[in-house]
Amino acid sequence: MLLSKKFVSDYIDLDENLSITDIANAMTSVGNEYDYAGKLINCTNLITGEVVECVDHPDSDHLHVCKVNIGSEVLNIVCGAPNVRCGLKVVVALPGAVLPLGEIKKGVIRGVESNGMLCSLAELGLDNKFLKPEDREGIHELPSDTEIGIDGIKALGLDDEVIDFELTSNRGDLLSVIGMAYELGAIYSKKVKDIDLKYNSNDDDINNSFKIDIQTKDCSLFLAKKAINVTIKESPLFIKNRLIASGIRPINNVVDISNYVMLETGQPLHYYDADRLGDTLIVRNATDGEKLVTLDSEERVLSSDDIVIADKEKAIGLAGVMGGLSTEVEENTKNIIIESAIFDSIKIRKTSKKILRSEASNRFEKGLDPLRTYMAIERSCALLEKYADATIVGGICEYKDLVISDTSIDITLAKIKSVLGIEISKEEVIDIFNRLGFIVTDNKESLNVVVPSRRRDIKIVEDLIEEIGRIYGMDKIEGKLPVLDTVKGKYDKTKRAIKHKLADLGLNETISYTLIPKDEVHKFTKDEFTEVMLNDPMSEDKNTLRYSLIYSLLEIYKYNKDRNNSNVSIFEIGKGFYKKDNEYFEENKLCVLMSGEYELDIHNEKVDFYHLKGIMEELLYFLGYDNRYSLLINDYIPNELHPGVSAAINVSGVNVGVIGKLHPNVIKDNVYVMEINLDKLLSIKTGSMKYKDYSKFPSIYKDAAFILDNKVTNKEVLDTIKRAGGRLLSSVSLFDVYENISEGKKSMAYKMVFTDPTKTLSDEEVMELFNKIIDKVVSSFNAELRDK
Amino acid sequence: MENKKVLEIKELMKNDLVDSVDMNKLNDLKVKYLGKKGLITLLNSEIKNIPNEEKKEFGMMVNELRNDFNNYYENKKQELESALLNEKLSKEAIDITLPSKKIKRGSLNPMTRITEEFEDLFVSMGYTVFEGPELESDENCFQKLNLPKGHPARDAQDTFYLKDEVENYLLRSQTSTAQVRAMEENIDKGPIRIVCPGKVYRRDEDATHSHQFMQIEGLVIDKNISMADLKGTLEVMMKHVLGEKTEVRFRPSYFPFTEPSVEVDVTCFKCGGKGCNLCKDTGWIEVLGAGMVHPDVLTMSGYDPNVYQGFAFGTGLDRMAMFKYGIPDIRTIYGNDLRFINQFDRKDDE
Lengths: 788, 350
Fold this sequence. Notes:
Distance between the termini of chain B: 90 Å
Strand content of chain A: 25-35%
Helix content of chain A: 25-40%
Shape of chain B: rod-shaped
CATH class of the largest domain in chain B: Alpha Beta
Mean pLDDT of chain A: 93
Oligomer: heterodimer
Low-confidence stretches of chain B: none
Strand order of the largest sheet of chain B: 1-4-5-9-8-7-6
CATH topology of the largest domain in chain A: Phenylalanyl-tRNA Synthetase, Chain B, domain 3
Structural class of chain B: alpha+beta
Number of helices of chain A: 21
CATH topology of the largest domain in chain B: BirA Bifunctional Protein, domain 2
Largest sheet of chain A: 7 strands, mixed
Shape of chain A: elongated
Structural class of chain A: alpha+beta
């Protein structure tokens, strides 16, 4: 909302010492932020003058050499405008003047001295939409009675200041100059002046020749009046300039008045050419598929959510949003019907979102004060009589389906203090309400506050408390900490611990987007589910909620690789989404991706499956799942993983995730990924951490190496050794592997530790057990003992 | 006669012991003098031929000779061994400037770090970190926050709705929805003290907006909670995150789910409040929205507004991270360039 200082000064006397920035800041402190506060025209050193001599430049086919009288002196100025001529009153930019296009300097143009510039409106920085072709092509022609030697901007009537407010959506009342005046009045303790609604009516009654027929609940108030014999012409300068200052393009006096009154009162109006309208105006909901050509000459297809103004045959306007072309006020319009109405704000919002957001629809959406609906139509009549020579037909067509009432609220001082946390006296409270124009009755125990209908945002006690806070000064509230019971704060320690653990293991944490392309959502998993899609995605590559995080991390890998960083070891914890049996689910997932080098030394060792497996083991151990997990080769492994370098991560019999190398069909690089469903994993209970006794007697260490078939796995050998070793074998681990020691054979060397927690073991006991283990391995796998 | 022999050996030893430069020579000397047939050893066998009165003196001379040799031998041995060790050590010298065998540097995402900073502060004040779902119902995200369908304030949040039979599910556009969850899930409808950090989504994308970003919401409900409590809490919070010198300013504003509502500014951390390009010469930067929970919001989630009142606040964690670490573009955060993420790998200055 652009507020013109001149405009609002019609309704409130502002202290002359107040700068526009002071006013804007004061408004901000009561909750009305602004974007810009300053002059409408940002130019200096402009003065009015008269061209007293104008001859062709001796050395140019389009320049003129002018003598311009600016009162104090006559300046020699070279001017290129086609319309410059002797006797013309002009705006002169003196040397040193700063215009949007730069600073004006004395100069010599093709050998002729030039001491200033004659200005066009375009050169003064007026927004393009306000400019007519002649404002761009030639210098501006001031009226012939313009005094010379006075301020140029003042002579144009553009010596105004404006504030561009960014208002909150509850303050529809501030979308009007009068509303702004009330707000400023509350700030500066000033009274708002009355609006002039006086005009004469003829003896006729509009109801004799015109009817309104409201056929929808979406219109709660509809007023119509008639003005006849209007003269369509240019508006007076002050109307045009106030429209310009408010950001609205002047058109002609009648159209300008409808906009002017809307700016003043906040009530949008619509004027119809009465002679093209017929004798009945209907308000109804559109039928589905109904068509209408709007003022912008576009054909609109409507639905039953749209409200239309219609004659008996067809829709002629889109209520609250845009008029129709067929009844538009034109240059030869003689008689007009004035509409001032209230339409359902939500319906208007829907229609305008679909078709056009306008000054009018914006006001309808925020809700209107019915008193202003009456005020605006009266004000329209007054101005049409005054500035369009209109005769106002007596009577009014009125449809009313609402109750106009002020809001009455009882409030206690205690409640105000308790919500705001301030010390404030009853007198201060009453003063603030008075300044806001609310009527207060002191009932001792409580105050009764009557809020005028213009403040439709105030409905409950808390709204009144906010008003107190706004005017008292929210920032004057002294902060303190709440006095509350001492309780234990809680947070999800496990998720945090996992993140820290993985960062400590050298992984970088990423945060990627939840939204991915639909084509990718079923990849990297064998789970069956319905994907969750957006109704109105911003783009096709972000139309579906991810299920697996692997796609996202792979994208991050590619992004970094493209930037010459292929040493990528990253992790992320995020949600995976799906739909099953018409219900939505989201699960926490942990994803790790590793590629390139993990140890950053000069040995250039690349990440392989076992690095990632190490990370997995470290994590599962840390979370308390030691000895409870295994890697299984089963049909849980997704197709996007290398079939020979992948496994399902199984904890206590539950497949909680997958680990492996990405399939070369997915990416040629050696990229390893792991994904664990954290919700599934963490639902498997672990015991609490407890001290376990360890043997005080010495252990005996034995090594044995076997020649085995290549296809025998480490796990099979380990399981055999453990079974044979029994209780006294306290640990066994593989410490060496030689692949292909001979055709199809490999050597695997194991270290075994024998311990008895109750006594020192004898060599004989251990050797017996050790030999039994060796025999068992040899017989089970048809192995050969290589060394012991 | 025999004493003369001793003196001869002594003389011989004097010459011999001078040039024993390595261990081999030293050991040869030991054999020569103290070996089974060594010169000093042999002197011992001479003692029987010595007259009794001279035996004592002879014995002392031989002993002295042996002691001299032994002293020399031990000293020399130590000297040679130490020289040998030093030579060995010097051969073992490495290039200490070669790169270390470090493993990759890991790091937490700056968003995790900033989230934990908020969480730690509030947990220390007895708050519970509450995590709601990202996929929400329109009812919880809007309607129960006093934003019925068609409410103009919904415009500020262009929401992603799910493709569904009815337009009732969405990706949450604000963590404020946690207010509703927390109140509804609190069966006994007693006091509440929570913060809810998490991802939120809006149809919006430019240098300062990402379609996915993070917010943190705070909610305190009890019997005597006021705007003053809100201000004090936010002062502690902003000082904790942005530094002790940070000041907090309240400006009245409007949110449908709080009444009264305020926008909260902090002193510009770039210029300290003097005015600069970041704060557009105002000295203040807007960082969050807050207010007293609207009585309708309390009522809709089963709280009696005549008994309970509370405050709520919400702020963008990405903005906080951008301010705190000086990140100019929000897209940097979600770009996941390792050159960015890698930087957040050390203890921050307290």
